[in-house]
Amino acid sequence: MSVATPMSAQASVLRERILTDLIRFRKFFAAIVHNKLSLAGLVMILIFVFMSVGAPILVGPYPSQFDRSTPFQSPTSAHPLGTDWQGFDILKLVMYGGQISLLIGFVSSFVAMVIGTSVGLVAGYYGRVTDQVLSRATDFFLVIPWLPFVLVLSAVLGPSLETTIVAIAVVSWPTTARVIRSQVLTLKERKFVERARAIGANDFQILRKHILPNVMPLVWAEAVLTISSAVFTESFLSFFGLGPRGPNVIESWGTIVNEAYQYLALINGQWWYFLPPGLFITLVVLAFAMLGYGLEEVFNPSLRRR
Amino acid sequence: MNLRRYLLRKVAYVILTVFLISTLNFFLFQILPGDPTRVLLPRGGQSNATGGASLREELIHEWGLDQPVYVRFLVYMNNLLHGNLGTSIIYRSGTPVMTVITPRLTTTLLLIGGATAVTMWAGVILGRISGWRRGRPSDIVITLTSLFGYSMPSFWVSLIFLFYLAYVFPIFPPIGEHSLGYESMDPVSQALDELWHFALPVLTFVVTNVAWFSLTLRNSLTDVLPEDYMLTAAAKGLTERMRLRVHALPNARLPLVTASALYFGWVVSGAIVVENVFGINGLGALTWDATTSLDFPLMSAIFLIATLGVVIANAVSDVLYVFLDPRVREA
Question: What predicted TM-score, i.e. pTM, was given to this entire model?
Fold first, then answer.
């Protein structure tokens, strides 16, 4: 048996890692495709991402003060969804709106995942007093009614993109913390954790190398579900006029509905002004929820029975 | 489990949560940039309070705003314990916030109570159908529509109802909780008038929240149906209706209580939206007025009351669960 040189040893470790990553990715992908619900969700998400990111190519640049048309036009062939109070094309606004709604959804979900996973890992792994304190804190944030809290927080911090993200992340992390905690509770009793401890791994190493990789699929599922609720929450904030706003800021879907309402689209019979943005919010929320539930079903065996 | 010990623990837990919420409420408003007296000013603006400088001085003294933070916290807690939640500075300058809030509370409780009753009733009916006919077309239609309803933002749903049922087809009134001349009506017409005005707001609640109950009941029925006693009931020759009503439902109903606990947090949020869109002068509409006028003491008090309401409703539903489930009660 020949002793491997350090170079080739490194290479084989690398190859091993790439291979496991690939297998993991394939499993993940197979799980999505296998579940009809999550596949439908994924397709819808891809359509919306394509629509909002591709908006500059599909419908041209975002409307500015320099290419205004007559305000409050009814749908015509030039403006399929009419124009808004500034004379901007509503179809353009709605297509671009996805950029801001999805951006806020992704970023605040990421922040919520960092908080939720850390709390869940620590609470589940250390148990005892740590768990008691963290679990009570989780329960506490879970009962707080989300809309008043988010409204107060963004009123105090002042409306901006960062505020919106922080406010949504603060109300979104508790469910993840709970799910991760209960998973960690069973994982830490497993043999491989005991084995790692026997060969002298410390708590941090065990958490990072043995427990985190095992809860990661669940974190992904939770992340997708949280994007769904984040987009939902963001639309409420924007509808109350507390979303990011300004002359050069892209309006989110909630903001468009807010403006339609403020500028009396209801009384003037302009259904094309408030129906499309609301429908898009609903479909995106539904799409991420479908993908998320599908993933959760695959990765959380305790739910598979249903 | 000892019932009395359980209740005592529950009460202790509620008291702790109330304390934590008050603390959070205090520190939430400490994030405001600038010195502590900033809570008395709208962002970047001048105090346009009618009481002007004297009201400002008075409030700084009352809430210890010129003191260090720990003194302010103690003063705040002391004031709360004496039922003093603050003084409105912009919305209704110089009025104690409780005076502003109390009349609004009845309207909101009426709306929320009615809406919850209708939502639960509809949810139980739909859940019963889809749980019993799991996998059949009626189940699929009910599950998908209730999930779609749940994904719709309530502000959008209320705009749609307002648009089609109040403006395009003027069946329901677009705004307000009473018609003109409400005071001169006889009690029966008053009640009918109230129903007529609350119909669309309640409908919005039902559409967006019915999934809480219908899906919970569907899933718990799914758990109950394969049980041995259901097979026994079928073997005894009971009709489908009897099996569902006498054997399945009493066992499947309990998770509804737990679901309602989570639902309360959403009701508050729903009330804020619905009251604003339909022009109902409740606590939700007040939340909005306080937020737009940046009346921080008023916002703080409403947040405190809304959160306390949810916590207490949660505790009640937990205790109710124990009383309703004989297995837990006697164990």
Answer: 0.85
